[in-house]
Please model this.
Amino acid sequence: MSQAETAVDVYPSRDSSQPRMSPRLDPVVWASDRSRAPISEAEVAHYEENGYLILQDVFDAAELGRLMAAADSAMARENIAPETIIEEPESKAVRSVFEIHRQHDTFAALMKDTRPADVARFLLDDEVYIHQSRLNYKPGFEGKDFWWHSDFETWHIEDGMPRMRALSMSLMLTDNLVSNGPLMLINGSHKHYVACVGETPAEHYKASLRKQEYGVPDHESIRKLSEERGIRAALARAGSVVVFDCNILHGSASNISPYPRSNVFFVYNSMHNQCVEPFSGQPPRPQHIANRAFVEPV
Ligand code: 6CS
Ligand code: FE
Model:
């Protein structure tokens, strides 16, 4: 398919003063042959219906120890490119470190590990590459919220991701508890595309990664979708993995507990869904936020 053909914007957003909700145009589970799934039929059905799946205790204590040591060194900004570090909006605490898979071997190996990668290759029915990776620390007392959003709406408008053929893995590096600002997902919201109001500001990422105010759904749409199927908190022990569809509405509250909610997020995108020119009409976001330079199967 030529570049011009893929540039048809089938998911417009931030182009009107009125919010809009429309049906998803893409499959959730792209796999045609489900007999070779690396997860159970019930897990596939849960993911397809709800838009996410929690895989309990995927990584063991020894593996977690290595990952936490790597996360601590990244949090200490050791051998980390300064432009990939995002600080909390109200302090100098490290909120996120982007492109972590290219800055630390431990995380590079994680994203190639067959336990998450095989699930992504199955659900997206293709070879996959890393569109984005990040460590979100959400430190105790200081970790601020991530307002409700669809990742795909941002990746489509600001990164030029054509279709909903991507998913996120969130590997829990610390226990994700009721008290420490766990990921919350609006059940089933991935089946609707919520177009947001408000034009994308220039270099929006400089603000949105600290506190997102554009490309966020309107309250009425959030209320409607929450009341339809409910809001779920992804509570699980460190070592567990949440797989969630690129378009599910999710967010998390501030962490006022003493306990960090540290997760490593990585986004698998289908090799047949590579980013084109951003649909915002603005220049692409930097490489460390939206990978364009290293598009090879994991
Ligand atoms: O803009 C982005 O790509 C990032 N923003 C959020 C809130 N989630 C996805 C991603 O990390
Ligand atoms: Fe997100």
